[in-house]
Amino acid sequence: MYKFPIFSLSLVGLVTACTPIASTTSNSLSVNVPSYLPSYLPEPPIGFEWRKVEVMSDEFNGTELDSSKWHNQIKTWKGRRPARFLPDNVAVNNGVLQLKTSTYAKDADGYTMGGAAVAGIHQATYGYFESRIKASKTKMSTTFWLHSDKAENPSDCDTRHSIEIDILEAIGGWPNEWWANRMHSNTHYKPTSMQNGKCRGDKYVSQGAKHNAGVKLNQDYHVYSAWWVTPNQVHFYFDGQKMGTVDLNHEIDSVPFNGPMSLRMVVETYDWQPKLIKKIAGEHQPYPTAIELDDPSINTAYYDYVRSYQLVESKANLVDNAGFEQGQLGWAMSGQAEVVHEHGASYTQALGAKLSKGKIKQQLSTKLNSPYQVNLYAKSAAQQGAVIKVIDDMGKTLVQRQVHSEQFALYTLDFNTQQSNQVTLLIEGSDGQVTYLDNISVSAI
Predict the structure, then answer these.
(1) Parts of the chain belonging to CATH 2.60.120.260
(2) Residue 63 CB: number of other CB atoms within 10 A?
(3) I want to staple 195 with a disulfide (CB 3.0 to 4.6 A). Which of 23, 78, 200, 386 is the partner?
C-alpha cells in the first residue's frame, strides 16, 4: 500500500545565481572548487516547481560533517571486503566533503584496507538528487546513491523488499576506460522469498544505464544526478544532460520503487575486481596498494555539494492537490473515478486519477474577464478518452478538449472567464474508456 510521504522540514526555493570558481587548498593540494554553482534541474511539469529539501542537501561549507544530516558510517554495513568503512576517513575541508582511503591492519573480520562512507539521516520518496563530484585516482570506487533504510512490507516475506538507485559508480584509478571514464548508474529491487523455511534475500532485479564521459572522471568535477520520477521510472544525468532512462521492471511488483530512501556517498571495493582485472592486458593489482591507499595526491574522492529537490505545486497554480498526492482531497469525484497507485497511473510521483464512466471536478476562484490556461498530463488507450472542460458559474462551457494520446501527453486549454469569478474544471469519462490524469494546473496568463 502506498504511504503518503510526510516531511517535517523547511523548503526553500532554488538558487540560480552563480559565482566564479575559486582556488582552494586541500591537504596541500590545489583543488578548483566553486563557491556556488546552480543545479541542473530538469524542466518540471507546468504548474509545478522544484523546492530544495534542506535536510538532504549540503554545500559542505563548514569544518566538520553536519551530524543533523549525515552519519560518518553506515550503521548496518561495515563495508564490502577487503575495505572497511572508517569514520576517520571522512572529513569536510575547504568547502568539500572528502572521502579517502587508508591502510588498515587486517582485523578479525577479514578487512585489510580502509574506505569511507557517509549516510543520510533523512529520507525522501521521489525527487531529483544531484552531486558535483571528483573521483579519486585509486582502484577504490567513488559512488553516490540512494537506498532503503528499512525494508518495505517487512512482515510479509513474499512482498518484502528494499530498493536502491545508484546514481554514480566509478573507479577513477581503474586501468581502462570502462570504469575510469564511465558513469555507471543502476537500479536494484531486492526481494525476499521463503527458502528452506526461512525468509531470505532473493535474486535482485537490476537495470541501469552507462555514459562514457570521454575523459577520466578523476581529472575534474562533474555533476551526477537522477530524477526519481515515479515508482516505475528513473532518469539519469551527466553534467545536466540526460544520459539514460530506466523503465523499472514491474513483473514482481507493479509499483516497485515506492518507498523512502536516504542518500549515501561511499568509497568502497567490489568483490568482482580480482576477476575483472585479469581481463585487462598487463600486470595490474585489483585493489590499491598500501602506498596508494595513503597517498593524499590520489586517495581522496571530493564531493563539492549534495542537493535534493522535490516537486511542489507552484504558487501560481490555482488547483488544490494538483498531483493527487493527497488522494481525493480538493476534488469531487463521482461514478467510476478514483485516485490510484498502480503501474502507469502517474506522470510524476506516486498517484494519479483514473476515470472511465465517471467525473472529477474542482471549483476555482478567478477574476472577471481574465485569460487563464489549463495544463494537464493525460493518456487513454482509446482514441476518444475523457473530455476536459472549463465551465462558468452559469453552466456554460468556456473551452473543452478530448484526451486521445496512448502515452502521457500535455493538454493545454486557454479560456477567458468573461463574467465569471468562479469556474469549474471538469473532466468527464467517455464511454467507459479508461483515462489517466496527473499534474493539473490552472493559472492566469
Answers:
(1) 332-444
(2) 9
(3) 200
Element (H, E) at 309: strand 300-313
Whole-angstrom distance, CA of residue 198 vs CA of residue 388: 52
Per-residue pLDDT of the chain (445 residues; tens, 9 = 90+): 444 443 333 333 333 333 233 333 333 333 444 557 999 999 999 999 999 999 999 999 999 999 999 999 999 999 999 999 999 999 999 999 999 999 999 999 999 999 999 999 999 999 999 999 999 999 999 999 999 999 999 999 999 999 999 999 999 999 999 999 999 999 999 999 999 999 999 999 999 999 999 999 999 999 999 999 999 999 999 999 999 999 999 999 999 999 999 999 999 999 999 999 999 999 999 999 999 999 999 999 999 999 999 999 999 999 999 999 999 999 999 999 999 999 999 999 999 999 999 999 999 999 999 999 999 999 998 888 999 999 999 999 999 999 999 999 999 999 999 999 999 999 999 877 899 999 999 999 9
Give how far Cα 11 sits from Cα of 25, 59, 327, 351, Å.
32, 16, 22, 22
DSSP 3-state assignment of 327? coil
How far apart are the C-alpha atoms of 404 and 385, rounded to whole Å? 6
11-313 fold: Jelly Rolls (2.60.120)
**How far is Cα 95 from Cα 47, in angstroms, rounded to an integer?**
35
Q: Which of 127, 304, 289, 114 is nearest to 220 (CA)?
A: 304
Terminal C-alpha separation, the chain: 39
pTM over 0.85: yes
Residue whose entry in the numeric block shows the C-alpha cell 548508474 = 185
Mind telling me the catalytic residues?
164, 169
Q: Where in the sequence of the chain do the CATH 2.60.120.200 domains occur?
A: 11-313
Q: Residue type for 240, please?
A: G
Nearest to 139 by CA among 281, 302, 282, 284: 284
**CATH class name, domain 332-444:** mainly beta
- DSSP-assigned letter for residue 323: T
What is the spatial distance between Cα 180 and Cα 214, in angstroms, rounded to a whole number? 10
